[in-house]
Design goal:
This protein folds into two domains: 86 residues, DNA polymerase, domain 1, CATH 1.10.150; 129 residues, hpI Integrase, Chain A (Orthogonal Bundle), CATH 1.10.443.10. The protein is mainly alpha-helical. It has twelve helices and three strands. The longest helix has 21 residues. It is elongated and about 60 Å long. Helix 2 packs across helix 4 and helix 3 runs antiparallel to helix 4. A hairpin with a 5-residue loop joins strand 2 and strand 3. It has a three-stranded antiparallel β-sheet, with no helix packed on it.
Length: 295
């Protein structure tokens, strides 16, 4: 095995066992590093170790390719974490100098208003197994503020209808228990009783299944929300699984929920992450004040 591949495997173990990163996060780091290795190979430069002289042109190339600032920032952060690991684990001597991480653009989050959420949910027919599944999935993602990976990794034993709770495994293998009440609980119960048995062809324990009976993946979730959004006349550019989580948080804040409670529901490790929704909400109000003809 080459020195580069060994370093990447060791880096993955560091992320997994020392930083507690999820397998999805580790795959994302590896994907970013593959792009970095491809750039270095095309440029005739050694990818190990990274340096300011090599990383700066890499980031410039991403900019010229039209990558969003958030994407460029992510690559810069990946290479900074990679460099930190290489130094810490003795792969390189001395301190590595890298360019600063570019500032991220401050964009308003993509959210749906409450009427659009209702239209999206209503687009799922209740007389078909896939309609019941899609309604339960979207109700759960919005009603509990789930990430796509969290919704797709749920298993039957995570749902307790008697207690009205849902056990969720979030980022960094952090578990949280969420309330399962009202319409969300009713839709999920109906899916489990009526539709899921028709989809479960292999006696699986995964909560959400595809038409062919395999566990639902994040790309399946994306296709579902795109399909139902089209039927609800919601522009596809605004629709992705995470928009339901953003909408959940924003709607609860507007209805008076305190930040600490919202932090627990979202599974954020720090209150600072949750506070961004306050800033988003204030920005939305500012835009409203500036643009609404009766403001």
């Amino acid at each position: 095995m080459s020195k580069r591949l060994t370093a990447v495997d060791d880096f993955a173990d560091y992320l997994r066992f020392e930083r507690g990163c999820s397998e999805n996060t580790i795959r994302a780091y590896k994907s970013d590093l593959r792009r970095w290795f491809s750039f270095c190979e095309a440029a005739g430069a050694a990818p190990l170790p990274p340096s300011k002289e090599k990383v700066a042109p890499f980031l410039r190339k991403l900019t010229l390719q039209g990558k969003r600032s958030a994407t460029i920032q992510r690559y810069a952060a990946t290479l900074r974490s990679w460099a930190h690991f290489l130094q810490m684990d003795g792969w390189v001597d001395g301190e590595l100098q890298l360019p600063p991480i570019p500032e991220k653009e401050k964009n308003l989050p993509q959210i749906l208003n409450e009427g659009e959420v209702e239209r999206l949910l209503a687009s799922c027919p209740d007389d078909s197994k896939l309609g019941l599944r899609d309604r339960a999935l979207l109700e759960l993602a919005y009603g509990c503020g789930l990430r796509a990976s969290e919704a797709c990794s749920l298993r039957l034993e995570d749902v307790d209808f008697n207690r009205g709770t849902l056990r969720v495994m979030g980022k960094g293998e952090k578990e949280r228990v969420l309330p399962l009440i009202g319409k969300v609980r009713g839709c999920l119960r109906r899916y489990c009783d009526e539709a899921r048995p028709l989809l479960n062809r292999k006696d699986l324990r995964d909560l959400f299944l595809t038409r062919s009976g395999r566990p639902l993946r994040r790309e399946d979730f994306w296709r579902i929300i795109q399909k139902r959004g089209k039927e609800a006349a919601i522009p596809s550019a605004r629709l992705h699984p995470h928009v339901l989580r953003h909408s959940f948080a924003t709607h609860l804040l507007r209805r008076g929920m305190d930040l600490r409670t919202l932090q627990e529901l979202l599974g954020h490790s720090t209150i600072a992450t949750t506070e961004r929704y306050t800033h988003f909400d204030m920005e939305l109000r500012d835009v409203y004040d500036q643009c609404h003809p009766r403001a």
